[in-house]
Design goal:
alpha+beta; PH-domain like; 3 helices; transmembrane helix; transmembrane
């Protein structure tokens, strides 16, 4: 979502709350849930899930170990869900021509530095840099090239967007901040 006036522009990059992350987060949790299901099935002597037969598994020690593996597998399985729930990586990039500042704000992981806020002077922006790589894993990243500092990524490296979309965003940003575009 972008909002822009003559003197002010706000871009809101997406965080980890994306459909692809929801799909990938389901896989380890569902896999981990199969282990305690087999362990409990071996205890009660009846298959809870027909595709996971437990007839040859003895509850002690194999069934207990299966339950333990399932519980242990849930911990790394819930990690992606926590990042999706907290929407890690979301925030805003604002450009204020009147004040001459460019603050970046992002949500991080819980702790003392959960909210990440960095502020730059707009006069330090040299160019808008666009990195596009084709191939099997295409990569489209938009950077701000700063004087005396490393490039600042404005889009997520794994963000899925069309090439034309990224180029249009780079052109709008370069037009607004009155700098050139590199990397076309």
């Amino acid at each position: 979502m972008n909002r822009q006036s003559e003197w002010f522009r706000v871009d809101s990059p997406r965080g980890s709350r994306r459909f692809s992350n929801l799909c990938w987060a389901r896989i380890p949790v569902r896999g981990a849930m199969g282990f305690p299901a087999v362990g409990i099935s071996s205890y009660i002597g009846e298959d809870l899930i027909p595709t996971l037969p437990s007839g040859q598994i003895v509850f002690i020690p194999q069934g207990i170990v299966m339950c333990f593996y399932g519980i242990a597998g849930l911990f790394p399985g819930f990690y992606p869900w926590r990042t999706i729930f907290r929407d890690v990586g979301s925030g805003y990039n604002s450009f204020d021509k009147r004040e001459g500042i460019f603050p970046i704000s992002r949500w991080g992981f819980p702790g003392g530095n959960r909210r990440i806020c960095i502020q730059f002077a707009m006069r330090d922006i040299q160019a808008v840099k666009l990195e596009i790589r084709g191939g099997f894993y295409p990569r489209r990243v938009l950077y701000l090239k700063m004087r005396g500092r490393q490039d600042i990524p404005l889009t997520r490296i794994g963000e899925d967007s069309a090439s034309g979309e990224t180029e249009e965003k780079a052109a709008e940003l370069a037009r607004f901040s009155r700098v050139s575009i590199e990397g076309f």
